[in-house]
Amino acid sequence: MKIDDLTDTLKRPSSLICGVATTMADKFAWSCLWTRVVWTVAVVMNPAMFLVIYFALALVLPRRKSPY
What is the pLDDT of residue 61? Predict the structure, then answer.
């Protein structure tokens, strides 16, 4: 896998796990790529707290409509 393929995958506004980063990027008009990067860094720095926050947000945030 090339780094360009990975970057293109992260830029796409589809949900990779629960869609929390995508939903936040849409709501606040942020870049989907950078929102995912920030979430990844946060989870790596403090996995217990940010994974709990991530899955809590997955339950609370509205679901995105699937284009399919």
Answer: 80
